[in-house]
């Protein structure tokens, strides 16, 4: 797969449908692979953390989660034209799992949150086979790993926050032998109803960041990364 690269971090120029086709291929081939969501904040953090950059680039698929990544691709003549957000991809994978019989395991979030999210997902996608659910506050990691191996899922979603969840995935993925692994951050809180997501029209227009800023104004420092990121991307382009 040909990938685009921004400030040393890979991003796949795939839309939602194309990513889902890759999911089917990965599950069919049974080779442990993982998906990571890429946004400007992660890319900027990777500038100061080589291990994080290596982690992001080691993923099988890097989805363009942030609108800033889409803008960067347009400015550089790339092929990315739409976001593939982590939560939307997770929901679509669950829909596909229900249709094709894929086995799903969900690990992470606070006690009770994952269970509630699974109820919502099963109501929405009849036939969804969730073979295991564990919150992220476990004490015996070995017991969790053995439970996942015993349940033998096709898909493992890990909700521990990024990049902790990706480090956990890469540390254990060869031992777990789960075909598809994906970190999903706070997706379970949104699905369970604990956190309200931006209206659909704002998401479609790429303004989800504005909704979150209005709801959580203390996030402005994190969001101020976007113009810095785009300036660096343009500077890198002019150098080339």
Automatic annotation (TrEMBL):
UniProt xrefs under InterPro entries: TagA_TarA (IPR034714), WecG_TagA_CpsF (IPR004629)
Pathway: Cell wall biogenesis; teichoic acid biosynthesis
Enzyme class: transferase
GO biological process: cell wall organization; teichoic acid biosynthetic process
The keyword Transferase is assigned to this record: yes
GO MF term set: N-acetylglucosaminyldiphosphoundecaprenol N-acetyl-beta-D-mannosaminyltransferase activity
Keywords, comma-separated and alphabetical: Cell wall biogenesis/degradation, Glycosyltransferase, Teichoic acid biosynthesis, Transferase
EC number: 2.4.1.187
Reactions catalysed: UDP-N-acetyl-alpha-D-mannosamine + N-acetyl-alpha-D-glucosaminyl-di-trans,octa-cis-undecaprenyl diphosphate = N-acetyl-beta-D-mannosaminyl-(1->4)-N-acetyl-alpha-D-glucosaminyl di-trans,octa-cis-undecaprenyl diphosphate + UDP + H(+)
Its biological purpose: Catalyzes the conversion of GlcNAc-PP-undecaprenol into ManNAc-GlcNAc-PP-undecaprenol, the first committed lipid intermediate in the de novo synthesis of teichoic acid.
NCBIfam families: wecG_tagA_cpsF (TIGR00696)
Family recorded in the similarity comment: Belongs to the glycosyltransferase 26 family. TagA/TarA subfamily.
Protein name (database record): N-acetylglucosaminyldiphosphoundecaprenol N-acetyl-beta-D-mannosaminyltransferase
């Amino acid at each position: 797969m040909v990938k685009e690269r921004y400030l040393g971090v890979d991003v796949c120029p795939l839309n939602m449908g194309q990513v889902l086709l890759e999911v089917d291929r990965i599950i069919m081939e049974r080779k442990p692979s993982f998906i990571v969501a890429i946004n400007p904040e992660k890319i900027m953090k990777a500038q100061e953390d080589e291990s994080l950059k290596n982690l992001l680039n080691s993923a099988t698929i890097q989805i363009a989660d942030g609108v800033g990544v889409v803008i960067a691709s347009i400015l550089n003549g790339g092929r990315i034209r739409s976001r593939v957000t982590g939560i939307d991809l997770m929901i679509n994978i669950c829909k596909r799992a229900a249709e094709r019989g894929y086995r799903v395991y969900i690990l992470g979030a606070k006690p009770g949150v994952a269970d509630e999210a699974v109820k919502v997902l099963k109501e929405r996608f009849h036939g969804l086979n969730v073979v295991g659910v564990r919150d992220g506050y476990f004490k015996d990691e070995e017991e969790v790993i053995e439970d996942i191996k015993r349940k033998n899922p096709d898909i493992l979603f890990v909700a521990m926050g990024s990049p902790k969840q990706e480090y956990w995935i890469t540390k254990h993925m060869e031992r777990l032998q789960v075909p598809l692994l994906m970190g999903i951050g706070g997706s379970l809180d949104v699905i369970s109803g604990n956190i309200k997501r931006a209206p659909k029209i704002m998401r479609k227009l790429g303004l989800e960041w504005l909704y979150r800023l209005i709801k959580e104004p203390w996030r402005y420092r994190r969001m101020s990364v976007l113009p810095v990121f785009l300036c660096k991307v343009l500077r890198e382009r002019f150098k080339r």
